[in-house]
Design a protein that fits this description.
Layout lengths: L2 E3 L14 E3 L5 E4 L3 E2 L11 H18 L7 E8 L5 H11 L8 E6 L10 E9 L1
Parallel strand pairs: 5-6
Antiparallel strand pairs: 1-2, 3-7, 4-7, 5-7
């Protein structure tokens, strides 16, 4: 079990995340590479929400391979190619995390692009479990 860090002396989070997560000694860690919104057959859907959903499908598979699940995620790092993608990304992320309490720490950055121009989002996570 990790501890959510929510100092009352700083501004609260802007969305559904916590400012920090403490991982106790003795936990294993899984760090995923950034996942892109691409199906197993190589097709890439249009739209940030559909791509984000695929990022989280891949992350679920990686976590399961390591014996963990989304409830073990302590940090989400996400990258989108424009401000217009923020609402769609956040909707998909919040759906993915809706049963996770407390939510993980999270960072969302706007970047100029990815290796292929059709990608608009990339997501990586850090997970910890005993």
């Amino acid at each position: 079990m990790t501890d959510a860090l929510r100092p009352q002396t700083i501004h609260p989070p802007f969305a559904r995340y916590v400012h920090g997560v403490a991982v106790p000694a003795g936990h294993r860690l899984i760090a995923t590479s950034g996942q892109l919104g691409i199906r197993a057959d190589g097709t890439i859907p249009e739209g940030v929400e559909a791509q984000t959903e695929l990022c989280f499908v891949a992350i679920d598979a990686i976590l399961a391979e390591g014996g963990m699940g989304r409830e073990d995620v302590v940090r989400v790092n996400a990258f989108v190619t424009g401000r217009e993608h923020l609402p769609g990304y956040m909707a998909a992320r919040d759906t993915w995390l809706e049963k996770v309490d407390p939510p993980p720490a999270s960072t969302l950055m706007i970047v100029s692009g990815f290796a292929r121009s059709e990608f608009v989002v990339e997501v990586e996570v850090l997970a910890a479990a005993p």
